[in-house]
Amino acid sequence: MKLEVLKNKAWECGFDACGVVPVEILTRERERLERWLGRGFHAGMNYMANNIEKRENPALLVEGARSVIVTLTNYYTSERQHPDAPIAARYAYGKDYHRVVKDRLFKLYSSLQEKDGRKITGRIFVDSAPVFEHEWARRAGLGWIGRNSLLIHPKLGSFCFIGVIISDFEPDSYSSSESRNFCGTCNRCVKACPTGALSPYEVNANLCISYNTIERKDEIPPLIKEKMGNRFFGCDACQDACPWNRGAVLHHVEEFASNPWVMTMSREDWLDMDEDTFKERFADTPFTRPGLERIKRNI
Ligand code: SF4
Ligand code: SF4
User: Fold this and answer.
1) Is 127 a residue of the active site?
2) For the chain, which terminus, N or C, has the lower number of CB atoms within 10 Å?
3) What are the domain boundaries of the chain?
């Protein structure tokens, strides 16, 4: 199958960008990860230390794997929450992206099988398995990894979800990687980080507001509390500061339409909410990950 055909199929499935690269062993990325873990920057995310060999070598994750198909789904919106609403990261405005992106990847996977006329063996991943998504996306020509440690697509910016298919699919040709890094001398994201969690190309999760508000199970440390301001779920500061997001285009995903409750509810509304109302308003959204109790703790 020609690369262009794959890209068109991805476009038909609703993806904003797509590339494909041959499976390789990512030794340099494994070493970087081990240094990061060694410094304890993963905080309570112990799962980051699991399955490092599979993360390094996708052929251990999917037997017979030949290629890594990478897709981007833009979720940028220019809508803003009401000034009295506690601040959530943009990715939480709509439905949970895992299911949305997975559904699209399944569609792409099936259409490749139909087009190729043979069974493809593989697996689909959306932020849920040991995969170096950012590095695969970079290799697939979808952008570069910025000082904020996120993938930056030259046209879409960084407000994108990365979806991956690792399989025995083999196109006629592969994408060429984007080796240039267009951060230049810019350091805005590092300066914009409210807690000092970000050093160039590396996040210390212990200090990161996203980690503390979404993943952290115990009390948020006083230093973070002082600096998180009105944020109660995630943090977009290192993306908002990035000049490559100034031209970000608006998403076109129905499921990511902004939930009116997130956009308008005040601090008191959140604190007064009971579990039934929470389920009614936020089932199938990223807020179910920490759950209502932890959300109240954050607020
Ligand atoms: S998400 Fe927020 S706290 Fe975390 S590194 Fe980015 S700016 Fe810093
Ligand atoms: S803010 Fe500047 S340094 Fe940070 S990711 Fe964007 S371009 Fe790179």
Assistant:
1) yes
2) N
3) 1-183+247-299
